[in-house]
Amino acid sequence: MRRFVMFGALGLLVAVTVWVIGNRQDTPDQALGSVPPELGEVLADGSSPPASPAEAQVAVGFRFPSTLSSSPTADEVQSKLWFNDDTWWGVLIESSTAEMHLYRLDSESQSWVDTGTLIDERSDSRADVLWDGVHLFIASGGDTSTAADHVRVRRYSYDPETGTYSLDQGFPVQLSDIGVRSLTIAKDTAGVVWVSYITGGQIWITSTGANDASWGAPFALPVAGTSVGPDVAVLVAHGPRMGLVWTNQAEGAVFFTSHPDGEAPSAWDPTTTVLHGTQQADNHITARSLDGPDGPSLFVAVKTSLDVLPDRQPTDPQMLLLELRPEGTWRSHVFGRLEDRHTRPLLLIDEEARELYLFAVSPFGNGSVYYKRTSADMIDFRPGKGIPFLQMSDRPDITSPTSTKQNLNAASGMVVMAADLDTEHYIHGVLSLAGHP
Known about the structure:
- The chain is mainly beta.
- 1% of the residues lie in helices and 43% in strands.
């Protein structure tokens, strides 16, 4: 089996490294500065200092020519990366053609290498990626009401001898006639692949039938609260069920429903109201699930809109982590407050250590990416913005962090990618999980 080295000496010794990439070039043309808080330091904003040498902050990067015209890592319900065969992979926009290609992360140079595999020729297309351990599924499409932006699903097989992905017979499959918003893909324990999206102010869903190339006709999700405006929805495999979480700003709510694996496609449970109240919902959300001895737990990070209220207070919650416990009860935990100005959350899980990593951009729009870490079994976020992860002090214009749907471990580490809109480059960071208690 061909193996690529995931972390070289640099990756093992330096826990967080920021790299900016554009195309397949191997030689950087400019290095970025560093922003390291020292070990043991109490950060000025009151957030958690690095808990161990594995979390020392070092931001050293390399810039490559690129011509990205918009944020290619948006939106946050989608995943652009995955880990397979000791290697991180991603779907990135190739700068000279504006096509979406499959890239491999070279751990030694920390640069993304174009494999030459075409994913989507449409320059405005956005993709959600699912690696199930055997096949790579990619749902892609644009967000306009034109036929050219229709949704496609591709499935690829991986050859470990050559380290290459090949498109399987019967793909791509077209799932819509026009472009859509909030496109996500997931797979349940029965082997059924699901796709959800928003179009015409309604959440739609479809799934595979006899095989992965056979899909049922999309239908409006048959539960309450799914008539939405500028909202988002995300599919998440949750134990023996397929879950769907979405925002509904008109009703000031975050809703949840789930589907028992193996049942008819229309057999969705009645809507559960997870969060409700004036300006409690915003259109930023991320979700992950973690198995445990008592059953699976679901974690959903959401942004509120309490900052628009006239009587708002700096300590009011701006970002929450909502937890569905195995016994079926929901709990709410404050991640950040209005004074922290967090937005665009990304949640990742270290399943070995049973720890949650929640990344967010601050301030609103574009800025720097911060993260906080907490036990999945005893959630407790310290006050403040968090630990800087992707940051450039002279150009705070980073947005839309993305990564993988997979739960991670010490062997994989964590890779988070974002977009630097000021220079129109990709930017990514690597976090080693080795050595954490």
